[in-house]
Amino acid sequence: MSSDTPIPPPRGNTLSVALIAALVAFLVGLAAMAAIFHYGGWSLGSTPAPVQPAPVQPAPTAPVAATDVATLASREQLLAARLDTLEARLRNTDADARTAASHAGRAEAMMLVFAARRAIERGQPLGFVDGELRARFGSAEPDAVASVVRAAGEPVTLEDLRQALEQIAPRLSTVTPGAGWWAAIRREASNLIIIRKETAPSPHPRERLNRAKRLLGQGHVEASLAEIARLPGAQGAESWMAAAGRYVETRRALDTLEAAAIGGKAMPAAGARQGDQDQ
Q1: Residue 225 has what pLDDT?
Q2: What is the secondary structure of 21-69 as a DSSP string?
């Protein structure tokens, strides 16, 4: 055998080196996978343990303070004082309600009298006001109610009196023809010489008649009636004076009913009376 012939490498050593290399590569892969699972939060088939809620601790209870007899008595006194305050408020509320009801009743009575006055001044019938006046004021002021109701049946207005006075004015300044010659002479003689104070009104028939008209225009019927009664021809104005007297009487009756309404003498309305009976 020649020395130039190459010697082949042994097959056993090459196979061993290949197996070792493959084993080392496998181990390196396993190590890499383990590192990935560990640091990346991956797990193999294992589930995280459930988080158990923290047990709720019961709130500490304050110790019950011992209640003695003095504390109970103090609380009872405080409760009694509060009850007394509530009762006082209830009494005040009831009194206020009664006062308000009284004021409302007086206002209703005043409105009733005002309606009657307006109807009479216009010469109109009272209508339903008639029955209300009898019910509300019949027991307290029966005469005033009768005067108002009677005046409504025969209404006399201020305009009626003014027109009637204009018609009879020409014969009021002279003596009535049936009075006699002696009365006429005395009347004329009294008018010739008149003695009076400087500030006193003139008693001359013409001046007196003018004053009566002026007073009547101002609504002073009673003063105008007094002037007409002193005129020479007053006997010829009896019907006018009677009508003026009824006018004055009616206004006095209305004033009386108005005072009764303000004073609370009027009876309550039918609904209010029924409510009081129910209570």
Answers
A1: 92
A2: HHHHHHHHHHHHHHHHHHHTT--SSPPPPPPPPPPPPPPPPPPPPPP-H
Cα dist. 39→34, 36, 42, 46, 56 in Å?
9, 6, 8, 15, 35
Q: Are 243 and 134 in contact (CB under 8 A)?
A: no
User: Which has the closest alpha carbon to 265: 138, 95, 75, 154?
Assistant: 138
Structure tokens at 24: 């080392």
pLDDT in tens, 29-59: 777 777 776 665 554 444 445 555 555 555 5
* 33, 81, 125, 156 from 117: Cα distances, Å: 117, 54, 11, 12
CA 216 → CA 7, 148, 170, 241, distances in Å? 172, 21, 17, 12
DSSP string, 142-172: HHHHHHHHHHHHS---HHHHHHHHHHHGGGT
CA distance 1 to 170: 197
Q: CA–CA separation, 15 vs 17, rounded Å?
A: 5
Q: Is the pTM of this model over 0.85?
A: no
Predicted local distance difference test score (pLDDT) of residue 162? 92
User: Model confidence over 215-257: pLDDT tens digits?
Assistant: 999 989 999 999 998 888 888 889 999 999 999 999 999 999 9
